[in-house]
Every structure is written in C-alpha cells, then in structure tokens.
Amino acid sequence: MNLLIIRHAKAVERRKGLEDASRALTDQGRQRFIASVAGLGRLGVKLDRVYHSPWLRAVQTAELLTPLLKGSTEVTPWLAAPPAPQLLELLEGDSVSVVGHEPWLTALISLLLHGTTQFGDRFELKKGGVACLEGQPRAGSMRLTALYPPRALRAGGDDDADQ
Amino acid sequence: MHGGTTTMKGLKSRGISIEPWLTRFKRALARAQIDPTAQEVHQLRVIGGRLRAWLSLGHYRVLHDDLRWLRQSAAAVRTLDVLLEKWPKAHDVTMAQRRARALTQLQRTLRSPRVTGLIAALRVLPALSSRQAQEATRRLARAALVKPLEWSDADALHAVRRKLRRLRYALEWQHHPMRDLAALQRVLGDLNDLSTLTQGQSNSLRKTRKAAVRRGSTLWAAVQPRIEELAQ
Lengths: 163, 232
Fold this sequence. Notes:
The complex is a heterodimer.
Chain A: E1 2-7, H1 27-42, E2 47-52, H2 56-65, E3 69-75, H3 85-90, E4 95-100, H4 104-114, E5 130-135, E6 142-148, H5 150-153
Parallel strand pairs in A: 1-4, 2-3, 2-4
Antiparallel strand pairs in A: 1-5, 5-6
Helix pairs in contact in A: 1-2
Chain B: H1 19-32, H2 38-57, H3 64-86, H4 93-110, H5 113-123, H6 130-144, H7 154-173, H8 181-196, H9 203-230
C-alpha cells in the first residue's frame, strides 16, 4: 500500500462558542490546498480510497482531494481520535489517503514506522502537509518515502508562513 | 403540494440546512435497531436518498459513498419486504427467515463506527446557498431528460427512475415540488418491482405491468416539458 497521511488544510481559529468539529477551512486554506492537490497530481498520485475524519475541516479537505480519486471515500471516527488498531484494519487499497488531525496523525506515522506512537512528536506535519508511507498498514511495517510540507507541493509558493 | 410551472426563478433564495432530514435520519436509524417494520426500513432508505440529494445540491463528492453503502445495506431487507407485501403469491416459508437474516446483518451495519462518523460529518456541514442548489438542479434536470424512454427496458427505466428521484428530492429541498413527478417515480418503482420477480410472470402480473406502462407514459408526457424548462 502507498499511504498518504494528510493533515487538514488551514481552518478558522478556535473561538468560544464554535464547536471544534465545526471549524471550516479558511479561504486561504482552501486555495492553498487546491494548489497542493494539483502538485500531488503532477506527482502522479491517483487514489483508490480516501478515508477522512468527520470533523468539518477534514471533510472539506477530503472533498478537495477528490479530483485525484478513482475509487471511493469513507468517513471514519477513528481519524478523529488517537491511532487505534481499528483504523489500521479499516485501510484497504493500493493507493490510499487518510485525512485527519494533529497530534494523532504524527502519532500514526510513528506507529506505522516504529510500532509505537511515542515518537510522534519527532515528526512535523503542517496543515495541508502530506506524509507518504509504503508497505503493509500494520504497526512497524511501513517506511517513510516522503514528507511534504504544504509549500513544497504548491506551484510557485508564496512568502506567507505556513502554520 | 403544488405543481404548475417550475423554473429556476421559482426556486426560493435561502440557505438550505440539512438539519430537518438529518434529525429524521437519526430517528430512522434508532427505529431500525428495534425490529423495524417494512415501512421503517423503507424510510431509512428514502431518507438516505434525500440526504444524498442534499449533498448533490452542494456539489459534494464525499459522504455519498457512505450513504450509498448504508442504503445498500438495507436493500436486501427492502427487496424481501416488497415481495412479501406486494405479491403474497411469491411468498414461501423461507422468505421470512431470509428477511430475519438480512435484518440482523443490517442492524450490525447500523452499529458500525462508519455510521457514527457519517452522522457526525453530516451534522457539521454548513447550509447550502441557493445559487449552488440552482446550478445543481439544472444539472440534474439535464441528466433526467431521456429521449425516447424505453418502457420495455427494465434497466433503462430503473436508471431514469433514479435520476427523477434525485431531481424530485432536489426540488423538494428547495421547497418547489413538481406535481406528477412523485407519481411517475412510483409507477417506475412498480415496474422495477415487477421486474424483480424471477419466476415466470402470470397473466395478472403482465396486465398489471401493461397498466403501469400506460400510466407511466401519461405522467412522463406531463413532466417532460417542465424538466426541459429546468434544464435551461
């Protein structure tokens, strides 16, 4: 399996009265991720399946990925929680993407590479960033083939700092 | 319900929230967990279809597959319920057992995390704009225009029925239902149900089918011009 682990794009800031799960992408976050998806397309990425968290920013990010999709999408609450065996058991396909949230995604990367979540803080996955792994989606059975900060995927880039 | 002329101008301009039908969906899911009747299983699928129509109005690609998966999970029970209710002569002693097994499988599906995730995702989706909805309705109307309509081709009729259902739901989401569209959809549904009987059709079933085709042709002639207006 080629697994793309994608953190949701930039979303509106947390604020009182706004439920975390309801935070939408900002216009800038949306536009930048559209450019990142174009970058993934230029790399030849075609996805059999996109799994995504049910939180709005992940739903919207997954929606922006669909031009690369040749198969289906699946929502799962396991991507709005720390990595669990149930998430790994769910994944199927040759070219798969998961869209979720920090710090759980870097914990997932650590789990897939090292068999433990404890090294998650050694990886940095910015909003809209993509980690590419290869192998069987089991603990300690994958290898990291690329780690793309969002700017690297966008054509041209800009001088604004990514968060 | 009112029919009359249906144009893009008539479609109301206001945000379209998923909330009312999502609430019904959650209730239907809860009922389906406790020995649901045939009607309750059917409602679960109908409401799922309405939610898919809302997603289409919003040009969403995500979440369609989850709703389709859920509706397909209920399809086995629904098919058996139709056979048991509409044509008792098709009933045999194992049919009820088959329904019980299909229902057990459906209930297992309804308890899955995927359903939990689906509800959570639908709940946070923002209301749709009327502009989005109107563009989508135009697209659905174009897709629904099939010339000519082949009444002898069960697969073609089924495909048209699905397109008309999507169009009808899209119009109802915008509080602008089209008269006769629901009736046409029911006739096409009856023809589809008739075609699912794999045993040789009796004379009475053939007559039933002929009458349904006549009724369907009349309704199709009535709705076609109005769909053409929407497709402009």
